[in-house]
Amino acid sequence: MAGRRTEDRPLSFIEQARRDQLVEVTIGVVAEHGHAAASLARIAEAAGITKGAVLYHFASKDAVVAAAHAHVLDALVADIGAAVDAAPADGAPAAYVRRMVGHLAERPDHARMIIEAMIHDHRPDSSARWKPLATLLGHAREARGLGPGPDLRTLAIITGGAIDAIVGERLQDPAYDAGAAAEALVAMLESAAFACERTTLSSSRTSA
User: Fold this and answer.
1) Which end of the chain is more exposed for a tag (fewer CB within 10 A), N or C?
2) pLDDT score of 173
3) Ranges of H-type helices in the chain
4) What is the CATH number of domain 13-196?
């Protein structure tokens, strides 16, 4: 196929469908072979088209891989956002943890795509990883009538690392019960973020 699609005109239905297919194929290729080995030829072969056809829709291998990475992140954010929005404020951190683990455990190719992107492209600002959960923890404490407590940034960083470890173990061993691990992590987070204050408040009321 000669030339490339003109960027200043809307995509046709067929063009959008082809781009969507290429994004899905690229996710699978990167997940199976890694970023470095995910060549344009390999992506084209997996899609059953020529390299020229891929380049009609995307300017380069980097462009199609970037589109695949963006698709994976958008799906993750939308899924977790829906779970958090559906939960009460005091239960939002637990919803975040459960859905983050669940989403990536259910979509191993997406998890591998994210890992490969972090290794081969660049690591995002670390606050993008911990700040959303830290914010949810702060709101949950307020909803429970709790004042200043533990360092929420540290709790969010530790929880994020635990999520990564759970998902990584699931990728290595598909039989690993990531759901049960997520529940254990939620219990630990509840204890670290809220339990001490509940115990203190209960003791204070008893003494009074």
Assistant:
1) C
2) 98
3) 13-33, 40-47, 51-57, 61-86, 92-106, 108-120, 127-143, 152-172, 178-190, 196-207
4) 1.10.357.10
